[in-house]
Amino acid sequence: MGASAIHSAEDARRLARRRLPWMVFDYIDGAAGSEAGASRTRAALDAMTLRPRILRDVSTRSLATRVFGQPADRPFGIAPMGMCNLSAPGADLMLARLAAQYGVPLGVSTVASTPMEALIEEARGHAWFQLYFSGDGSGTFKLVDRAKAAGYKTLILTVDVPEVGRRPRELRHGFRMPFRIGPRQFLDFALHPRWSISTLLKGKPQMANFLMEGFEFDRTESRAKADWDTLARLRDRWPGKLVVKGVLDVEDAVALKAAGVDAIQVSSHGARQLESAPAPISVLPQIRAAVGDDYPLFYDSGLRSGEDALKALMAGADFVFFGRILQFAIAAGGEAGLHRLWAVLSEEMDIAMAQIGVSTLSEIQRPDGD
Predict the structure, then answer these.
(1) Is 167 part of any known ligand binding site?
(2) Where's the active site on this chain (predicted)?
């Protein structure tokens, strides 16, 4: 059992739940509050339907696209996720190699467990650095300069976490980074020996981008000081592409476009922050209508299949990102599990394209947003 048992994202999640410590699984899987936001997002995606078309020659199909003018073998990439090495030792590097193989963006989190320099090298340049504004911003702008020096060409500013959302599942386990191991955590690890032995042999996962900076990142520190002036300063300082992630409001989207942001990522942070936020897929067509057909618009949150990804493209996204399900695949079957799920997602989208009668992504018809 392992990679060969993964036939869907749910298979990967089920296997990961069995193999990961409860604390780690609930950190990856959990959402804000009672998780109604996550359910709302899932329900909205499930409610969307695709229009089957018949007797069209779709014998030759392609999932290839372009992102910021660069070719990509898939219309989906890897969302920035913190502390991926909790799913398995070396998970960050597995994701980087996947990005390199398919020419898709790897989102490198501020709180990655592998240094940003190593990840962009392993991804052969297919890496975007994700930034949190934190505290007074002094450490934040150090990371911006470091990303520039490392060769990053695209920066993702995540703006939907002015304060870290309350996720009861991880709070019940006493989850903190860096780890604080007490009796409950010790028992949890002891009951999952394969994970514990392999992880501890490789060393406790840490927030690697801060080891070189000489200070410890506090994931609970307020990020509420960021404002439109902060964005303007960042725009002036960053010469490459600037993406703002975590947008769910049409007025904000229009203002971001006017402020010189190169792309917007519609996202609810996987429903991990504000439980009462709208389902991102429901606001995506409205934001597309507001920013126009030619403005780059990305999407993440709640995607669990290739059909989900196709729905987001049809709702107005130019490119989408998968997140936690990739960590589940790694936990379930290592690097082979990751590639297995990636193949499943690709096949799901490819088959769905055939069913709706399109051979290329450029043939997808978007709604008008009304």
Answers:
(1) yes
(2) 269
